[in-house]
Design a protein that fits this description.
This protein is of the alpha+beta class. It has 4 helices and 5 strands. Strands 1-2-3-5-4 form a 5-stranded mixed β-barrel.
């Protein structure tokens, strides 16, 4: 009886492995599904909108390992991280690939970025953290 159960479970697991695709692909991005929140909401309560796709509007500061997006120009000027969202660089799409070369990466310029809100790290000085969406369409 035990052998039969073991064989059945093993067979079921093998069959499940065949159901998992080897490579994934994404459809074209449907921007109508993007959530629209005020920057104040994203900064004040990022934990309530974790894993949601949002549009971030703010003033960018390009750094070596990511981009800080500040709520206002004054926040950018005074480097008020409590009013900023951190977008770390992604392995699959560098800052330069996503935002353009140095000629387009102008600190203090206004940007609108589509991103997914991530859990905030405890030691992060920023109000929120997000992953920028890669649009290859």
């Amino acid at each position: 009886m035990k052998k039969r159960i073991t064989k059945t479970v093993a067979f079921a697991m093998i069959m499940m492995c065949f159901q998992i695709p080897e490579t994934g692909y994404a459809e074209k991005i449907d921007y109508s599904k993007m959530n629209m929140y005020a920057m104040e909401t994203i900064i004040a309560q990022p934990e309530k909108i974790e894993n949601e796709w949002v549009r971030l509007d703010g003033y960018a500061k390009f750094e070596e390992n990511g981009v800080a997006l500040y709520k206002t120009e004054k926040d950018y000027k005074y480097d008020t991280k409590e009013n900023a969202v951190w977008l770390p660089e992604r392995e699959e799409a560098s800052i330069e690939k996503r935002f353009g070369g140095p000629e387009k990466q102008i600190d203090g310029s206004a940007w609108a970025i589509s991103a997914v809100i991530q859990p905030v790290k405890k030691d992060s000085p920023y109000a929120a953290e997000a992953m920028y969406v890669i649009d290859e369409s």
